[in-house]
Amino acid sequence: MFYDHQQIEKKWQKYWEENQTYKTSNNTDKPKFYVLDMFPYPSGAGLHVGHPLGYIASDIYARYKRHQGFNVLHPVGYDSFGLPAEQYAIQTGQHPAITTEQNINRYEEQLRKIGFSFDWSREVRTSDASYYKWTQWIFIQLYHSWYNKDTDKAESIDSLIQHFEEKGTEGLNANQNDELNFTSEEWKNASDIDKEDILLNYRLAYRAETTVNWCPALGTVLANDEVKDGKSERGGFPVFQKKMMQWSMRISAYSERLLQGLNTLDWPQPLKDSQEYWIGKSQGAQVQFKVEGHDETVEVFTTRPDTIFGATFMVLAPENPLVETITTDAQKVEVDTYIEETSKKTERDRMSDVKNVSGAFTGSYAVNPFSNEKMPIYISDYVLMGYGTGAVMAVPAHDERDHRFAKKFNLEIKKVVETEEDVQEKSFDSKDSVCVNSDFLNGLHYNEAKAKMISEIEAKGIGHGTTNYRQRDAIFSRQRYWGEPVPIYYKDGMPYTLPTSALPLELPEVEKYLPTEDGDPPLGNAKEFAWDEANQKVVATDLIDDKTIFPLELSTMPGWAGSSWYFLRYMDPNDEETFVKKELADYWGQVDLYIGGSEHATGHLLYSRFWNMFLKDRGYISHDEPFQKLINQGMILGMSAFVYRIDGTNQYVSKNLAKDYKTQQIHVDVSLLKGTSDELDTEAFKAWRPDYADAEFILEDGKYITDREVEKMSKSKYNVVNPDDICEEYGADGLRLYEMFLGPLEQSKPWNTQGLSGVYGFLKKFWNLYFNGDVFEVSDEEPTKAEYKVLHTLIKKVVYDIENFSFNTSVSSFMIAVNELQKIKCNKRNILEPLAVIISPYAPHICEELWSLSGHSTSIEFEKFPALNEDYLVEDEIEYPVSVNGKMKFKISLSAQLSAKEVEDLVISNEKMQQILEGKTPKKIIVVPHRIVNIVI
Q1: Whole-structure pTM value
Q2: 186-220: pLDDT as tens digits
Q3: Residue 677 DSSP class
């Protein structure tokens, strides 16, 4: 019977949509299971075949759990704020909302074609005001919260105000920007503006001066991962380090909990390692060094206080405020020039550049509090203001970077850890040796020396033991248009939150999407974007009088804001009263399976864990962590095609002749190749782009053969394969099976369209099991034991594979089972119906059709997954190979129930064995039950 995949797939996609087959109920006594894909950003290019890999895996698992009787939440939505739509708006004037809507429609059309079992009724979009109303609401909760280190959680700012009213800062143990000291009287007597200023020092969402990556050409602050080699990733514009007033999120308050929480998660170890490194916990001491001739002190954090006697100079971050104070007149020009140069590098560039040594001498000296020796103070870009205190005590004998710096600037190198190595030539960094040249630390090992030095530092009153974290607070402002407006207005220069009743603060219309002429963000172009405090509404900007009508915040939230809580909104997507009802958050709990790319390790996955912990602290949800199990899917790689252009000409030479010419390798679109071969369609190539219209070709055997290479699949490499084309030719079920068949989910693997024919052949074989010629024919006859064995062998394998995410080996097992059933001409209902249920998570359309043809009026989706019966896997007979003196002589079939002694007796009495023995007695008989018989004569 002809397998018409196009008709079958259209039919069932229509059925699922009309019947809302995958709509999830919140009212059920079934156990829950929450399966989620990382939030897709709807780009203009649509999906290529690499994108659905993770979605197919999660969909198989979601369908499998439904078969097991779980109430499965498997939603979809769009992270729809983003830079590409805004850049397009700047270029064309088209509103980003229109571009985004078009892109989403394209994505949705493609996703539906692949047959995903999403609950489309729960779809969310971060750029919808009904969604970002709650993103703004969460921001307001963060603003009105502080972190109490004593209770180790976030609390309402009201409890902090009460503490100030009663005790001032006495006994306060809070996460803060600066350590403040005041009495309750001083607090009570402070003006309202001063009180607000003090509270900003503690709020979890706060505004402060921060060093940022500023890109003047784009008019915005960029995240570290948006900058490469001192230039913006988008557009290649220069980026500078600049101090600006920015909104930040106090994620640093959660560093320890984020670190400890990793122990409770079933995540890939490399991903956990990335977060652990990013958080960067280190234990050591905070120490103050006096600066000669100044009242100021330099405070450093060091993980190696045991080496303080070897500290021979100090290095400050160029942006450290002390630099301006302590730099001498003679050194000012050199220092200022160096600071200007450093401003062109991002923090990431500075951290990764370990080879280049540079710096400038300030002209001032610190005093080593233990050796009393003078230590010249330098500035260098390898010291970062955001980590520790923005200053380091340099111990060149025992730190590689300090050593390079000392050699460059001819500074003293003093050994304080015992080693045979010449520390003048190479640093020796070890915790296994003992202290030398260190007065009272001499002879002590690392742990003893560290503890002793910390107690000495504390006794001198110049510091204390402490724990430090590399993780910095997350900048929360973007000088862009297409993002969530920040629900803040300014009164007397201080920020105030809008009342929650005024939410959502909607994105206003603007005439242009660039910064204003005064350098304000694009929202500065809005004509209706001011806050009327008296009437509690947004009014015209030209009414601002700073008496009753005030300016609103002009920055928008960063791209990660909406994706930091979307997993909670899916639980209750249409609620207008709250972001998620507590009882629904308690029912759905954590995401049980989260699938996505590893590139989000230190961005989205940290921010969402932080917001989740915060919402738990404030009592809105009950679980600490959002994602219990996480899998990073690998990448599907493209097979790029290249032509060779002879330098200085428009001539193109075929691959195997290119070695005879000086050529340039150029990517060409894989669609220009003939069929599935490597041969270029030269006429199509000439028509592809105007500059190739006059191309001439040097052929081999009358053909132009392209070079091929496996690379990342991307539009820029012209190696993208559109899933729509695959679905058209091989079907969505073919695409789903092939993507799983390519290899282990976590590994990267190359795409090869030719490989689909094998999977498509399997689907046709599977289809034809149910037909006799063109007639659907399934028998109600009881299956044989051999038929049951094929089915239950498959059940055992597939259950193991799905539960271990080994989807590729399941596809192989389907092929083996169908081949075996075809050989024995099985058409029994008790075999073929369970077979359709087993294969349906992978190939849902064909299985729905076969299930329907078998006489069922309901979807296959909620049928119970077939239970394994091990009895069918027990062998009745074993075929024993019989070896004599190491050579296999014959085989004998014996009952599987026989003991080793019974097998031995039957083999010896066998006629063939008697002929071999010729009356001799065997020296040795070895029976390996169910495997082999060895006889030595």
Answers
A1: 0.88
A2: 999 999 999 999 999 999 999 988 777 888 887 77
A3: S
